[in-house]
Amino acid sequence: MSRNVVAIIPASGVGSRMEADKPKQYLSLLGKTILEHTLSPFIAHPQISRVVVAVSDTDPYYSSLAILQHPKISVVFGGETRAHSVLNALNSLSKDDWALVHDAARPLIKRSDLDKILQIHSVQGAILATPCVDTMKRTSDGKQISHTEDRNTLWHALTPQFFPAASLKEAIKTAFAQGLNITDEASAMELTGVQPLLVAGRSDNLKITRPEDLALAEFYLLKEKE
Asked: Where are the residues marked Positions MEP for the nucleophilic attack as a site (predicted)?
């Protein structure tokens, strides 16, 4: 079945936990910005027709980033939260498009994982995820353990997350209307009763959040070049 797939990259965050002098998507990683690493696989993929990048309207860096001039890329302004930025990007899509949403700070996404999630045609949508391998503890006060969770039923949610654009747009708008906090696209869809599919992805698809993550990303990229 032929369909139009548009990648959405919310890139309007400030990345305060990185303790850097600029938003983390503009930090250097082996001679390129994190955002350049992130965007490249989406630009190159033949099943992705275009890429919408949502940046802050006060962002002083995006205009000097050459990759954002690529003909496959369009730029919109983001919003107050990640979900608002995704919604602003969704407003530029057609109702029959499919939206492939990916974190700007995940620069290690592999073509093989993109291929896997793009094979999904269920209207329930899908997300990349990895099974939880650590012992997981639940706390009621943030300090003491209340009990241990069964890790066999737990997965780490990754991105991209892949949904029909119209359904995702409506789900996010509904969540906003109800004053609900949504941390990823799947959580918005779940609130409407949808049960997205889990697609097992690579564990090296890490999100750069803290300074030590940047060093780990560099390690993975150097190993890939060997």
From this structure: 151, 207
